[in-house]
Structures are given as structure tokens and as C-alpha cells.
Amino acid sequence: MTNLKVHSTVPVDLEGDLASLQGDCARMAPHWAVPDRIAPRPVSPSLIHGVTVPSKSARLLDAMSDYGD
């Protein structure tokens, strides 16, 4: 599902390189709005259910040292 309709006077290079991608991003950057603040909403523990961990994975994680040891 690709929309190849382009409303730009700049030629589009669909097989472009990294420089072409960077140029595309630079042209699009003014169109992106940045929110003032992103605050994660808390999730009620009652909504978290159905998570299962295989016993092999639990044993593997239990045997790993904590970060920074």
C-alpha cells in the first residue's frame, strides 16, 4: 500500500540514498508539530492481566546479575 502522489516541486527519488532521505526529512521537519509536554498516563493494575512468562525465561532472568555488577 504505497501512495506515490506527491505535492512537491522537488523531484522524488524512490531509490535514493542517505543524502536523499536526509533532504526529505529536512523538508518535512517544519510540518511536524512538537507537543509542549508528553505525560504518560498511569495504567491501573487491574487492567494489566494475561502476562505469562515461560519458566525457562524466568530462570534465565533470575540467574542474570543486576545491571552494574
Characterize the structure shown.
The chain is 29% helix and 0% strand. The chain is built from two helices and no strands. It has helices at residues 18-28, 55-63.
Number of DSSP strands?
Answer: 0
Kindly, what is the distance between the CA atoms of the first and last residues, rounded to a whole number of angstroms? 48 Å
Question: Number of helical runs?
Answer: 2
Structural category is mainly alpha
Low-pLDDT segments, ≥5 res:
none
User: What is the percentage of strand-forming residues?
Assistant: under 5%
Write the element-wise H/E pattern from the N-terminal end onward: HH
Looking at the chains present, what oligomeric state does this protein adopt? single chain
Biggest beta-sheet profile: none
Shape: elongated
Helical proportion, percent range? 25-40%
Radius of gyration: 23 Å
Q: Mean pLDDT, nearest integer?
A: 76
Q: Could you write a compact summary of the structure shown?
A:
It contains 2 helices and no strands. With 69 residues, it is mainly α.
Helices and strands, with pairings:
Elements: H1 18-28, H2 55-63
Features:
mainly alpha
